[in-house]
Design goal:
Helix content is 37%, strand content 20%. It has helices at 2-13, 15-25, 28-35, 52-61, 76-79, 86-97, 119-122, 143-150, 171-175, 192-198, 210-213, 218-224, 257-263, 266-275, 294-302, and strands at residues 69-74, 102-106, 109-110, 129-133, 138-139, 155-156, 164-168, 202-206, 234-243, 246-255, 279-284, 287-293. It has a seven-stranded mixed β-sheet, sandwiched between helices. The chain has a three-stranded mixed β-sheet with strand order 4-9-10. It has a two-stranded antiparallel sheet with strand order 3-5. A hairpin with a 7-residue loop joins strand 6 and strand 7. The relative contact order is 0.16.
Length: 319
């Protein structure tokens, strides 16, 4: 952990070094070398009991209240020390939000035939059609959204990339238009993420680095769509989207994964958000809690992204 902290400090000060390290890591020859090295590293976990009531009190102190829209990123691997089951944590948060509030979580899916890891950068899907089943496609973004999808109260995004699940007053309206329009984007005008932004959702992480998981930043890009200043930002992908017996074939626009995998100044963004008092970070009983207002976040990004911030070494569109 000490080495990780030192690396983050260095990368926050020297973002070009962070981006350069990714180019080395994702080099195809380096990828092969890494794949044959046995990983014997043992994880060390905090064993301290986490008082979830203290966590809820901190969230209330920082703007979460009845009627709020909350987007939660989480690691149940860390939250298990609360001694609460996933559904109990979900219900505690819903109780805090009340009947007028809405709890949403990213519900990213594993799709059969989708590329993994290093292949994402160089390979193309061409005419491949991937299957996305709202109820059956496996979730990889955590135990809490996995349990939430099974809940009869839940509404699920039809958009196959950066999908979302939600329970509460706004959940149904949040998902209604997700795949509407020609070549929609995951966080664009009709998305659940844009809906949450319009409601000034509070984005919170429990047990994970929020900047690592901060899907909301892509609303800054996707809302601009064709007016986003970076050349070659999007590619097209086609999905067969299944909800019960209804099947829709849809082509969407996806931010090319190379931008996040290679060019993203993650640690500099984290440093800038903290220095501008946009990102709040706190440890409670060893649990990392981070909070950001979605509107404050997007307003900050909009003020800086004429050159593609928080990404480096990009070619601007010429108009």
């Amino acid at each position: 952990m000490a080495n990780e902290g030192f690396k983050n400090i260095v990368f926050s000060q020297y973002p070009r070094l962070e981006v350069f390290s990714r180019f080395i890591f994702f080099n195809k020859f380096m990828a092969k070398a890494i794949s044959i090295i046995p990983n014997k590293k043992k994880r060390k976990y905090n064993k301290q009991y986490i008082d979830f009531d203290k966590v809820l009190d901190y969230l209330k102190e920082n703007g979460l209240k009845k009627g709020s829209v909350l987007i939660l990123h989480s690691s149940y691997e860390k939250l298990i020390l609360t001694k609460k089951k996933p559904i109990e944590i979900i219900d505690k948060l819903l109780e805090l939000l009340g009947d007028e509030g809405t709890l949403a979580m990213p519900a990213n899916r594993k799709l059969k035939g989708e590329f993994k890891s290093f292949d994402l950068i160089n390979k193309t899907y061409n005419d491949t059609i991937l299957e996305y089943d709202l109820k059956k496609s496996k979730i990889w973004s955590g135990a809490l959204p996995m349990f939430m999808v099974r809940d009869k109260r839940a509404e699920i995004s039809k958009f196959p990339i950066n999908s979302m699940v939600a329970i509460g007053k706004d959940a149904k309206r949040m998902m209604e238009k997700n795949i509407s329009g020609n070549l929609p984007t995951a966080c664009g005008e009709n998305s659940s993420w844009k809906y949450c932004l319009d409601k000034d959702a509070i984005v919170i992480s429990l047990g994970v680095d929020l900047v690592d998981s901060l899907t909301m930043i892509h609303a800054a890009e996707d809302i601009k769509n064709e007016n986003w200043p970076i050349k070659g930002w999007y590619r097209h992908r086609t999905f067969r989207i299944k909800e019960n017996d209804d099947i829709v074939l849809k082509t969407v626009k996806e931010r090319h994964p190379k931008w996040g995998m290679l060019y993203f100044m993650k640690r500099r963004l984290c440093k800038d958000l903290i220095e501008n008092k946009i990102l709040k970070t706190k440890l409670i009983d060893g649990l990392l809690i981070e909070i950001v207002s979605s509107k404050e976040l997007i307003n900050f990004l909009d003020s800086k992204n004429s050159n593609g911030y928080p990404y480096l070494f990009l070619k601007k569109n010429r108009k």
